[in-house]
Structure formats: C-alpha cells, structure tokens
Amino acid sequence: MALGNKRTTLLVAMAALILQPSAASRVGGGLARAIADPGNGDGDGGIPQLPPQPRECRPWLARMMPCAGFLTNNSTVYAPDATCCDGFGSMFTLDTVTCLCHVVDGDIGKLLPAPMSRMRMVELFSVCGHAGRVDLLAAACSLMDGVPPIDLPSPSPLMPSPSARRLGD
Length: 169
What we know:
Layout: H1 3-18, H2 21-36, H3 58-61, H4 68-71, H5 82-89, H6 101-104, H7 118-127, H8 134-143, H9 162-168
Helix pairs in contact: 1-2, 1-8
Domain Bifunctional inhibitor/plant lipid transfer protein/seed storage helical: 52-134
Keywords: Disulfide bond, Glycoprotein, Signal
Family: Belongs to the plant LTP family.
C-alpha cells in the first residue's frame, strides 16, 4: 500500500473512531464500499479521499482553551462547561481529525497554564458526548505519518548575501 493510501486509511479509521455514530457509519461505509469495489475510478486503489488536513493545529486546539481549568485539574472546576464541550466538539471533523492527536498524546499541555491531567482528558471524551475509545485513537495517532505540528516552524532569518556584507564594510 502506498504511503498516501496508508495515511488516508488511518485518517478514515480515526474518523470512524471519533465521529458521532451517524457520521462514522457514512465514513466507514464509504471505506467499506470503496475497498469492496476498488474500481471507483479515482485512481488510488479504492481508498476514498478525505479533505486536506491543516498545516498546523494551534487554531483548532485554541478552541479547546475553555477546557483549560478542567484539563489541568483545577480544584474549582469539576466538570467542563458548554463552551469547553463546544470547542472540543469542533475537533471532531474530517478536516481536523489529525489535530486530535495533540490532545490524546498530551501535547496540548504545551498550551495550557498547568500540567494536563490525562484522566481528565479521557473523561472529557465521555462528558462531552464523544464515545470514541481514546486508547484506539492514541494507537492510530502513533501510526500516523505527518500529524500537523501545533505551530508551523518559524522561518529562519534571512542571511545577508556576501556582496551585501562587503558593501557595509
């Protein structure tokens, strides 16, 4: 299987793990039909095409910042509020599914004001109404090639050309 097909298959599997049942059946059913009938004419061996994934995840992860008190075991926050669950729910789309890897592997902790509680992160899935298995999602993330970074790398500063340095001497 080509690398692009492997990545797409993992994305579809991740989507089936985390999307609501009705959406998951559409994605999973489409995958099953494509594999059963690989002659679908798209030239990639039967794997359905998913939307392009984001180049960086910070804009999507920022939507989860209302969850910071809950995720960091803040002693005054016993349950996530509606804005937290709304932000968390926005991560469950086909075009941002890979950014959830930063949630399950704990990288989102880099954006939080205190260390993230793994137990609270696992609770967040069920409390906010997402029945996906976190362990299966984490396993799929560990197999992924090319999970978008939280932030794009900073561009390196431009070095002056050798001729420009001679002019300033």
